[in-house]
Write the structure tokens for this entry.
Amino acid sequence: MNVIFARDIEDMIETDIIIIGAGPCGLFTVFEAGLIKLRCHLIDSLPQPGGQLAEIYPKKPIYDVPGFPSILAGELVDNLIEQGAPFKPGFTLGERAEEIEKTDDEQFIVTTNRGTKHKAPIIAIAGGLGCFEPRKPELDRLTDFEDKGVDYIIKDPEKFRDKKVVIAGGGDSALDWTNFLADVASEVTLVHRRTKFRGALDSVEKVEELSSAGKIDLITNAEVKSLHGDDSLSGVTIYDKVNDNEVRKDCDYFIPLFGLSPKLGPLKEWGLDLNKESISVDTLDYSTNVPGIYAIGDINDYEGKLRLILCGFHEATLMVQSAYKRIHPDKNLVLKYTTVSGVNAFE
Amino acid sequence: MNDLITVFVTDLEGTRHEIQAPTGMGLNLMEAMKANGLPVKATCGGMAMCATCQCYLESDHELPEQSDDELDMLDQAFFVKDNSRLGCQIHITDEIDGIILRLAPEA
């Protein structure tokens, strides 16, 4: 870990605890830290808080959150955000925590892939399964064409205005973007491996209507098999599984939309003791081998570890106590009950 | 008293593992493989919402039909073949004793 001089850094988000990962565990940390007057800022690579609960299974009921016989994952996230709101957490969303540096005044600087810098004396890694990244199909030269005609995420639809676009996939994002880009791009082709779609019914119906009206080209039971182009993408070959033939299609963009999958990502480089893809911690306070950096929730590992949300909540609670002692070594922390003291929101 | 069945799983290196799994405990193949140390990620925990427990069925066992959830997920996955199944959707029962599976590359 490089040591950098605090005075050399400007335009920085400063807080007490930088939480990497805005899943349930990271969100609950905000509440527990707030009770002992520590401020938090969350960083997450996804554009919304909630981690896998929001991204993978928002509509699934969870039955083992204490006090809730059943709660939908998405509702639990909403509740956790509401519970932490009095403590005014900051959020850096849609950015991946990329680099951790240490300053000469015993603080950490966390920089995201977009260059946003955060400074705090404590880092809590609540990274769950890692960073969600687009799942990439196995196609020759796919990575060669990234940013040269291959996109996995659509940030600015205007980029595709009057262009020829081939989208692959059968889920909500493939359907939604096909419907949206039908009015923007000059030509939209949707390639799907089956005839049935996984997405919401109204999106499926709209795609079928657009196809019947000749506004998009819907090719089912088919797959994109190869990519063509010199420096940038100029076309794809689509394999029709039913008729066992191949069609070459000229296009400016190929957008494979096969969902997201978690990857451990940059945290491998942060000098932390790892056990396979988890961070080894001391169960006393869930501290890592780097003083000031903690790991809680699904990302950590210790003897007897259970990857349950309720265990992550416990870890978050103990972790912030240790963080407090590190920040205020001269102060005694007395446990206060919310039934007695209430929740004293931050100004 | 639970009965044990035998499951054969070939990993990505081509090594075949013989594992024993109890019936009657509500386990599925993904859980049995994980419990025996096989490198199954099972990102979603068994909800048929990822495909990291995808495997290929290499014996002629008759398995229950695939649910829409499983078909939909396999539809999004990579390396899918006609004999692809999600381990988490196959329950450990006497009917699958001796089943032979091969792990799919990470989907």
Observations:
- The CA atoms of residues 32 and 61 of chain B lie 18 Å apart.
- The first helix of chain B runs from residue 29 to 35.
- The radius of gyration of chain B is 13 Å.
- The mean pLDDT of chain B is 91.
